Amino acid sequence: MDTETAAKNGIALLTLAEKFVEKSLLALLVLIPVGVLYFSMYKIWPGLELQPHDFKAVTVQPLAPEHSTPRLLRISRGESEVRQVVFAKVHKAASTTVQNILLRFSVFRALNILLSKRQHQIGERTDLIQGIVPHPEGNNKTFDILCVHLIFNASNVAKFFSDSAIRIAILREPLKQTVSALAYYSKNFPSKILKRGRAKHPQDPINGFLRHPEDFYDFGNGPAFSYVNNRMSVDLGFDRTNFETGKTNVSKIEAFIKQVEEQFDLVLISDYFDESMVLMRRYLNWAMKDIIYIKRNAAHFPKDSVWHRDINRNATVMERFRTWNLIDYKLYEHFEPKFLDTIKQEQLFKEEVSAYAEILSKVSNFCLRDAARTKIFHIPESEWTEEFAVTEFDCKLMLLSEMKFIKYARLLQRARFNQTNNKMYEGKVHK
Ligand SMILES: *[C@@H]1O[C@H](CO)[C@@H](O)[C@H](O)[C@H]1NC(C)=O
Ligand SMILES: *[C@@H]1O[C@H](CO)[C@@H](O)[C@H](O)[C@H]1NC(C)=O
Ligand SMILES: *[C@@H]1O[C@H](CO)[C@@H](O)[C@H](O)[C@H]1NC(C)=O
Ligand SMILES: *[C@@H]1O[C@H](CO)[C@@H](O)[C@H](O)[C@H]1NC(C)=O
Ligand SMILES: *[C@@H]1O[C@H](CO)[C@@H](O)[C@H](O)[C@H]1NC(C)=O
């Protein structure tokens, strides 16, 4: 059985199991305290577990031979595809779409991803890397792909990834990024403090925030607990001690920008998303098929929602917000022109981006409209790509939510761990 069919089986099983878990959980919650349930779920409901033989079908492709990819600036394009990628998943900067691309790339090559055992992220509040799914080939092996949330700390990350892994970050225009985070978290995961801000500014929370960001922020908890205080810089590792003082310190901010410059090979800009993906593909020497996507995780609000109020962009308001979000502004103002400059120097770049956009729209039409009927779709060979097929399974993966995809990737990795360690039919869940 080929990998794709096998993976397909895996995903179908996963969906089934998830439905079952959802229903059973509801029933269980009535009977047993939540803590006990979570702790002993496997023991109480052995039937819920995906069985090892369900995964027997997954053909584990051998990893590509260890090739030491030189640092980005030194690579001569046209070598084999880069398979080791560290992606700093910055909040609300289209990073879930990039994550989906990286996850798909990993699934089809049986790459090992740094994943948390339980959550869909390693940590949003700390830069510690712990509680991870073991590497199938042993504890001192480096992983191939990082694409889940954590607060970036280069020396911690270096414990899990080879120095030759390409480091990529992504940024978004700070006003858009913050407003998007404010709306998204207020709607989906409202903290006490976001609710407080909302209550103070019920009719117009965005403009309320821009004028009074402190109403939506808990100074006691600090920036790792917030998504609306320079979150991009926090994600990329800006020092969180004495944060409010730090963000008025221009030389500290400049040193941080220099650090990002040194720690990352490529800083993408999500406001130029397709350009970013084309640039990434060129640097990683990936195929066009590797970077196709269907846009995900974009916030949807009804037209009359308070989250659609026009933003008051008068100078006073913008200056207030800029002061609040100064680190992110400085960071963006450094890397956005740099990005534009980089793509300007690329040859035939615009041409490739429009070819890409055309392919994306065909893929999207196929996946959202025709996939159930036609099953497979061919993108013909052109100057920009070899011929490739998009299957129903590709569509499914592109449309998979972050949480589901992470669960699926974790199961594949555990199956690979079992296979490598010949533990397929032993009784215990490994630690
Ligand atoms: C760790 O690496 C050493 C050599 O680099 C090797 O001998 C050893 O077997 C490895 N241990 C595991 C658990 O993979
Ligand atoms: C990264 O983590 C280490 C501990 O592992 C810590 O000593 C160091 O200060 C951290 N670096 C930054 C920039 O926060
Ligand atoms: C600003 O940051 C730099 C570098 O971290 C530090 O040496 C300096 O003391 C800071 N200045 C103030 C006024 O806090
Ligand atoms: C900007 O808007 C704020 C809030 O509506 C208002 O108080 C302020 O006077 C305006 N400033 C200018 C320069 O228009
Ligand atoms: C891996 O093996 C353990 C037992 O050693 C088993 O409980 C678990 O279900 C297996 N996982 C997968 C994904 O095959």
UniProtKB/TrEMBL annotation:
InterPro entries: Gal-3-0_sulfotransfrase, P-loop_NTPase
Location(s), subcellular: Golgi apparatus membrane
Transmembrane regions: 25-45
Gene Ontology CC terms, in alphabetical order: Golgi membrane
Topology in the lipid bilayer: Single-pass type II membrane protein
Family to which the UniProt record says this protein belongs: Belongs to the galactose-3-O-sulfotransferase family.
Protein name, as recorded: Sulfotransferase domain-containing protein
Organism: Elysia chlorotica
